[in-house]
Structures are given as structure tokens and as C-alpha cells.
Amino acid sequence: MENAGGAMDWDGAVNAWHVAGGVYRMGRREWLTEEGWRQAYDAGIRTVVDLRNAAEARRRGTDPVVSAAALHGMEVVSAPTEESHHAQFAALTGPYLNDPAYYPDNARLFPHRLVAVFRAFADAADRGNVVLHCAAGRDRSGLVAAMVQDLAGDPDHLIAEGYRRAARGINERYRTHGPPHDRERYLDDDELAPLLEQRGKAVVEFVRNLDTRAYLLKNGLSPAELDAVLSLCAPGAAR
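Structure for Protein tyrosine phosphatase, as requested:
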């Protein structure tokens, strides 16, 4: 059931990939140009699920200017995967999630947040395809994307490669544009490859131990909502 796709070439998009079925992922949406939004619309995207905390969702001076008309037909849903300034989580991860080793902690501490993400998917399923994003499109997106791939029935190697692909994508952005702050840096392949080997395995371990279906139902997603999510994630569901 190898339904994970490749890179999306929407203009301005950074680290944009097909995940499974009608679900896509990318870095922050503010990088898209007006042409990029048109291309995403033509790809069937009708809902954007923003996994960032509210304070992160802002335009930067280097971002392209995009008119409201370019977003016509798109619904943007805020669904953070964590609670900002959560002392216990920050003690584990630092200022933000940047390692799949902490995905189980995210799922343990914030089940209501992850259920809200998948409820947003369920609500969007009848409208068209969905693109999820965080800031870099790597770890918060990676956590949710792995859960989507689990629901879609993807094998371990595709789930691992989904994370590795996104990590390479944002690393390339750092090479060409520089990192956004001093907690990130460009890594050459000698350093990156063994790190991604380890982290890809950690993503698979996380999602296999989680049992995404059971986790979502246990924490409040209804069976009908789960069915809607499954229809969105299913192979061939892209519109």
C-alpha cells in the first residue's frame, strides 16, 4: 500500500510533499506565492491545517505579498499539536519539538490537541484535499504525517522515509537561505545521514507503539470522524 507521493512544486512552497491519499504537508504557508496558492487549489487543496501555536502564525518581511483573493476557496484551520509554554514538555524538548524521540511525550501530554488535528481532517474530508504545516515542515508535521501514514496502511520504510525526506528538505532550505535562528543549522550529508537513519527509526517506533486508530478513539475522536479521516487518507483519495 505504497501510496506516499513525491514533492509538490507549488510556487514558493518549502518542503512540500504528498503524505497519503488526500493529505499533503509543507513548511509555513506564508512562503507560498499567489501562483503557489493557485497551484495548490488546482491540486484539490481546500483546507490548510496549521499546526503552529497562534503566536507563530505571522507574515515576515521576506514573505511574498498574497492577496485575499488568492486564498478564495481555502479554509485555514488552527490546530496546534502542543500547548505553548508547557513547562514539562519544554523541559524535555527545549523551546520546540525538533526530534522524533519526543513524539511519544507529545502524544502523552497533548492527546486533545492531536485529536483536534484529526477532527479538522474529518471536517475537511468532504471539501477536498488537506495540507498540514508547521514552521519547518519537519517535526510537528512529521508527527502528524506519520499518524496519517499509519492510518493509510503505509509500511515502515515509507513512514521512515517520509520523515527523512522532510528533514532533508528543510536542511536544503537552510543551505540556500540560512537557518531562522541559532538552534538550527545546515548539516552536510556526513552528519545528516546517520542522524536521519536514527530518527526515521524513531518515527516508526513511535507510530507503531501508538496504534493511531486506537489512540484517536480512546481520546475522543468519534467512530464517524475516524471513518471520515480514513476516507481522506486512503490510497486514491486525492482529488
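Strands lie at 17-20, 23-26, 45-50, 75-78, 129-133.
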